[in-house]
Automatic annotation (TrEMBL):
Origin species: Parendozoicomonas haliclonae
InterPro entries in the record: Na+/solute_symporter_sf
Transmembrane is among the record's keywords: yes
Transmembrane feature ranges: 28-49, 69-92, 112-136, 198-219, 225-244, 256-275, 287-310, 322-345, 351-373
Gene3D superfamilies on file: 1.20.1530.20
Key words, A-Z: Membrane, Transmembrane, Transmembrane helix
Protein name: Sodium:proton antiporter
Length: 394
């Protein structure tokens, strides 16, 4: 678990720097922020290419993935809806409960609680030595479907905020094309797959995503086209023809270094929090109340991730299913991206501060979640060994 601890500390370092650097370096740091975002996208692309490269799907048994997608959809939807209801009925004034604008803003803002951070999750599970377990294989499927569901659901939310625009139509078309090509060309690309080449592909994907965003922003700043790197990077990994020899030792070292850098970058991407709550116009909210809200929002959003506990009863034990649910808790760069999008649409106030603090708390607890998963699986293994040594009498 030493690697998990190191990654957790690097994540914490990034979070601290995300709050300290803007306050001490101001405009200098602001000018550097786009570079940090770009490097985060590139590192995430690399991780997702690796995930896709290791991902196996049986085209002759596609029906088995339908239930996985349903489970992943609940993992992406329940936390979102729980937090939205909390924001509306606990934080918003009673007279605004019937307001469409209130629901529209909270539906967008609450989306931060939905996406499991696939990059953080896979990195941490691999660091914990769980790469060969049923949990890792199932979490890999669920987290990818979870992120896909998040990307798809951001489209109608963006339409609610900005209207049905040509940019939204382009985004939908690109997603359909990527999914179609990725499926048809699975394991068909005979291209180099060393870590250097995969890093090169990652920078190409990050550059393409950033270029589309900048060009669309220049055309119409109100509705830019934001293609997340998660989907294209994962699909590219699925299309690359795998090697019979597997990865080299150099590749494993590169994966560790890039994952470590990614942890710092995820923390650095956290927006600067607004601690001046009184000036926000809601002086009745003191810090004790704010932290109470953060606690409840974090708890209910993670409860929303617990649906896998009720599923896969024929495949796994209760401990494995509980470990899988806890493994879906980590949030990261995608959730932070939703908060940044919310800021762009003018959504703010105390709810935004609580959302940011809740996301930060979840990030800080990532190592704890992974250790809990490890403990659950180790305890189960010990019980199996003890049962084999001391079988029950017939």
């Amino acid at each position: 678990m030493r690697k998990v601890t190191v990654y957790s500390l690097l994540l914490l370092l990034g979070l601290i720097l995300s709050q300290w650097l803007p306050l001490n370096f101001g405009d200098s740091y602001t000018s550097l922020n786009p570079v940090i975002v770009y490097l985060t996208m590139a590192a995430l692309s690399y991780i997702m290419i690796e995930v896709g490269y290791e991902f196996d799907i049986d085209k002759n048994r596609l029906g088995q993935y339908k239930w996985d997608y349903v489970v992943a959809m609940t993992a992406a939807t329940f936390p979102w809806l729980f937090v939205v209801l909390y924001f509306v009925f606990v934080l918003a004034p009673a007279e605004s409960w019937g307001s469409f604008d209130t629901w529209k803003e909270m539906l967008l803002l609450g989306r931060f609680a939905a996406p499991t951070s696939a990059g953080v999750l896979f990195t941490m599970l691999a660091a914990a030595g769980l790469g060969a377990t049923w949990l890792f294989k199932k979490a890999r499927v669920l987290a990818i479907f979870d992120d896909l569901d998040t990307v798809l659901l951001m489209i109608p939310l963006s339409i609610m905020m900005a209207g049905l625009t040509w940019q939204m139509m382009v985004m939908i078309a690109l997603i359909i094309v990527m999914l179609t090509v990725g499926y048809q060309k699975m394991r068909a690309l005979a291209i180099p797959s060393s870590w250097k080449w995969m890093l090169f592909y990652a920078f190409i994907i990050a550059t393409a995503s950033k270029s589309i965003l900048l060009i669309s922003t220049a055309i119409d700043p109100s509705t830019p086209i934001h293609i997340e790197v998660l989907l294209p990077a994962f699909l590219l990994g699925c299309m690359i023809k795998t090697s019979a020899h597997g990865h080299s030792a150099d590749q494993a070292k590169a994966n560790t270094v890039i994952s470590a850098v990614f942890m710092i970058l995820v923390g650095l991407n956290m927006p600067l929090m607004n601690f001046d709550l009184v000036s926000s116009g809601d002086a009745s909210q003191d810090w004790n109340m704010i932290l109470t809200h953060v606690f409840f929002v974090t708890v209910i959003s993670n409860i929303g991730k617990m649906f896998p506990l009720l599923c896969y009863r024929k495949e796994a034990s209760v401990r494995e299913r509980l470990a899988l649910s806890i493994g879906m808790f980590p949030r990261g760069e995608v959730g932070a991206g939703v908060l940044i999008i919310s800021l762009g649409y003018g959504v703010g106030g105390v709810a935004l501060t609580i959302a940011m603090l809740s996301l930060t708390l979840n990030l800080l607890l990532t190592g704890v979640f992974i250790m809990a998963v490890k403990r659950l699986l180790n305890t189960q293994d010990q019980e199996v060994v003890e049962l084999s040594r001391n079988p029950e009498p017939a």
